[in-house]
Design goal:
Distance between the termini: 38 Å
Number of strands: 7
Radius of gyration: 23 Å
Order of helices and strands: EHEHEHEHEHHHEHHHEH
Strand order of the largest sheet: 2-1-3-4-5
Number of helices: 11
Largest sheet: 5 strands, parallel
């Protein structure tokens, strides 16, 4: 059975050597050149081989490959960037990595060993059914409310969330104030889980292999639902807000654990 391997443009020699070797000596391996990450699923690959410096490589792409049944192999140069390439590939969720100087026959053997098991890969139809519950980019609404301290941004945000809560989708209010997050106190909500919990949930979802064939049970949506704030016990008879809330990070020092891209990923998943 033919093994279809996708490779990006690369300034390193491994890509050309692999293509020439398979063209001249291997009958059951097809090497397909990719221009960007959008072609990964469209080409129906078995294995994707990427450099640690491939411009369009990301944790989200690795997760998408895994969901589509495409194995990912990373190639790194231990002499570049103090050997950070291997660590970078691992952080993106790529388990199979190889040094750039690996012999082409050994690289090919590694690729053969990574051929996906069809019984473990999520089928395209199942994946499509799960993705159908997500909003298209044109239907998503992300509204940012901000201003100087004491300007009433918190009250405006709460009022805005209330005003749109009668729509088909339940709004989610996310507190990203870096200095004085006050939604939890204002609405009588527990301080944990919070924004950092949600960031960790999305990170795990994007970099961890699936533990089930059912995408609904391992989706980011399920992870984020567990991060929605709960009322504190002493809130008594206070009515529950008609919107969900992800409260702010309680300890200012913990913002060092979060970057803007992490918060953007959480908001993007919620809007979807």
């Amino acid at each position: 059975m033919t093994l279809v391997v996708g490779v990006p443009f690369s300034s390193r020699s491994w890509r050309g050597e692999l293509q020439r070797h398979c063209r001249d000596h291997v009958a059951d391996v097809v090497v397909s050149l990719l221009h960007d990450g959008r072609e990964v699923v469209g080409r129906k690959l078995d294995v994707l081989v990427v450099d640690d410096d491939t411009s369009w490589l990301s944790a989200a792409l690795v997760s998408q490959c895994r969901e589509a049944g495409v194995s990912v192999v990373g190639v790194f140069d231990p002499d570049e960037a103090d050997g950070f390439g291997r660590q970078h590939l691992r952080q993106l969720g790529i388990a199979a990595v190889a040094p750039v100087a690996l012999d082409v026959e050994d690289l090919l053997e590694l690729l053969r060993s990574q051929k996906p098991d069809p019984t473990l890969a999520r089928s395209f139809s199942t994946l499509t059914a799960a993705q159908a519950t997500r909003r298209s980019a044109g239907d998503r609404r992300i509204i940012a409310v901000g201003g100087p301290a004491g300007s009433g941004a918190t009250e405006v945000a709460i009022g805005l969330a209330q005003s749109i809560s009668d729509r088909a989708s339940k709004p989610v209010l996310v507190d990203v104030d870096e200095t004085h997050p006050s939604l939890a106190r204002r609405l009588g909500l527990c301080l944990h889980p919070h924004l950092l919990t949600a960031v960790d949930a999305v990170r795990r979802e994007r970099t961890s292999p699936p533990t089930t064939l059912e995408p609904e049970t391992s989706s980011s949506l399920q992870c984020l639902r567990a991060c929605v704030a709960r009322p504190i016990a002493r809130s008594g008879g206070r009515p529950r807000a008609p919107f969900d809330v992800i409260v702010g990070i309680a300890t200012r020092d913990d913002w060092n654990l979060v970057c803007p891209e992490d918060v953007g990923a959480v908001v993007s998943e919620l809007s979807a």
